[in-house]
Amino acid sequence: MRKILILFVIAASVFSVNAQEKDAIVLLTPTDFKSQTENKDIQLIDVRTPEEFQEIYIEEAINIDFYSEDFEVEFNKLDKDQPVYLYCRSGYRSNQSALKLVEMGFTEIYDLEGGILNYNKEK
């Protein structure tokens, strides 16, 4: 009986964390991402490498490289209570970044579906 209770507590914890992550992270279509980020003073973050960022980026974006040792240091400089808009090349790194940000205490995270490749298709 005790083993069943322990398994139930572990399962409940996992589902609770997943629910919190899902509540904090919103996946936006390129159209919605554009409308929410245009002409606003927001925290817009490109998590690609500096080389990728130099090739093409969304205006007003700040580059914080997902692979950088300073990833958490740079994100800790941001306001955790303000919305954060993330994008990368195709969506994987921004999703992984969003999960890290939830762990760091960010409460409102918007992730560009399909990354900048998808964003630029709609131009």
Automatic annotation (TrEMBL):
Top-level taxon: Bacteria
Domain Rhodanese residues, every copy: 38-121
Keywords: Signal, Transferase
Cross-referenced SMART domains: RHOD
Xref: CDD domains: RHOD
Signal peptide bounds: 1-19
GO MF entry, a single one: transferase activity
PANTHER family: FAD-DEPENDENT OXIDOREDUCTASE (PTHR43031), OXIDOREDUCTASE (PTHR43031:SF16)
The protein, known as: Rhodanese-related sulfurtransferase
Organism: Xanthomarina spongicola
